[in-house]
Amino acid sequence: MENKLKELKTILADVDDLQRAASVLNWDQQANMPAAAAEARGYQMGTLSRIAHETFTDEKVGKLLEALKPAAAEMEPDSDDACLIKVTAREYKRSTKVPPEMVAEKAQLTAVGNQAWQEARAKSDFPLFQPHMEKIVDWSKRFAELFAPYDHIYDPLLDGYEPGMKTAEVQAIFDGLKGPQSELIHAIAEKPQVDDSFLHLDFDEQKQWDFGVEAVTQIGYDWKRGREDKVTHPFSTNLGYGDQRITTRVYDDFFNTHLFATLHEAGHALYEQGIGPELARTPLYGGTSLAIHESQSRLWENLVGRSHQFWTFNYPRLQEFFPSQFGNVDLESFYKGINKVEPSFIRVEADEATYNLHIMLRMELEIELLEGKLAVKDLPEVWNERFNQYLGVTPPDDAEGVLQDVHWSFGLYGYFSTYALGNLISVQIWEAVKKDLPDLEDLMAAGKFSDLHKWLREKIYRHGSKFEPQELVQRVTGSKIDGTPYLRYLQSKFGEIYGL
Fold first, then answer.
1. According to the model, what pLDDT value does residue 148 have?
2. Is there a catalytic annotation at residue 119?
């Protein structure tokens, strides 16, 4: 059995190498690549993706997994090898349903589609992206059909990001959130609005960048195993052990954009940097799901980065960077300003109270696209109508509306719901942390995050993807994904800020 396990690990290492190489090409496409190279890059990524898929889905892997079943049954269930066999078997079953040519097709479609999206977004012209999105949506429908019969066409796509979760399960969670969050937003709207004018001044780009570097260094980002680059839409990526990169963007007329995007992406990277090195070059070397991943980015962005304690320590330093903008703004005003609740167009800049509504809108539209109830050509108009229904404002153009997110250009249907789920999980985890670290707020106010980082690494990061998301949440918090703690957090925080 030991030889068979070793043989399986050798194949999985080859697959991981190919996938990470494709990720390097993807990172380069968004950070450095010239626009004219999109078609060639699509072929390159398609070839790597196809070879990785063919290698992983080879019948040899299936035979090895079958032969290892008896041994796995006798292993400690939480051991690395037992989890590796279990997770690999799950992914093998899923991947063998997908023909290699479809894998290569998606890589080609999305490489070209992403370049078209970048141009369309820059020009605020959805028709430039429309034919590409139509092809990607068609691919997604064909992909879902490979897994029929299913409870819902969205299920196979969601399962790729949240193993084991169903569309109906997510919809039920969201249904429990929508009403209370809307009530909170309406209650806040009746109160005097906080002033955040000092956040909309002129901010030197390099100074913003330098302060962001200091902030993510403080929370534990390891620069020996990472780097930061400027892109159109921020993201983080794991290119293999010792290489977890972050990207961000900078606006010179709004302070929040750069810093909170940087903290967000660093949160993702901290997760990946904390995975046990013994899991490298296996399917376990990555976050267990995108919702768990998002719980970490939102934890560091919001529960830390938008907390009063974080700024108790860091605000004097920020005032040194921007004396003319913040020199006469006291800490309380600044804290309220960065936590201002107001319906806005851009998801990644949305406040905590309205953010989930952005996600619910996107999931609703994705489901209708896949069900055939909504045509891609009608998406901008429907987006604007629904956006107004959800948030009470209408985007002025496509760039601030339907084209604002990169995800659809990469074929990431089923992905958006993970953002809202991550919000809920982040607060569940935060409550668990505070029970174990009762002096957490004092440590944060002193600029000390090593204990928090250590707790997260021990409880979550080091396990990689050994456990399914609901299982991991249960292990860490004592319950499955639950929106109640998040609602409690919002009502407490914004009740205090707005005097509700």
1. 93
2. no
Distance CA(256)–CA(318), nearest Å, equals 13
CA within 13 Å, CB half, 231 = 28
Residue 350: phi and psi, rounded to 5, are -70, 145
Output the CA–CA distances (angstroms, integers) from residue 171 to 111, 167, 360, 421, in the order listed: 31, 6, 9, 11
| Active-site choice (105, 162, 228, 265) | 265
Q: What parts of the chain have a pLDDT lower than 50?
A: none
Q: How far apart are CA 232 and CA 247, in angstroms?
A: 9
Q: What is the pLDDT of residue 2?
A: 87
pLDDT tens digits along 330-373: 999 999 999 999 999 999 888 999 999 999 999 999 999 999 99
Is the separation of the CB atoms in 72 and 81 below 8 Å? Answer: yes
Q: Which domains does the chain have, with CATH numbers?
A: 2-149 (no CATH), 167-498 (1.10.1370.30)
pLDDT score at 178: 87
Which pLDDT value is given to residue 182?
87
Say which residue the tokens 């990001």 belong to: 161
Phi, psi of 246 (to 5 degrees): -125, 155
Please provide the size of the chain in residues.
500
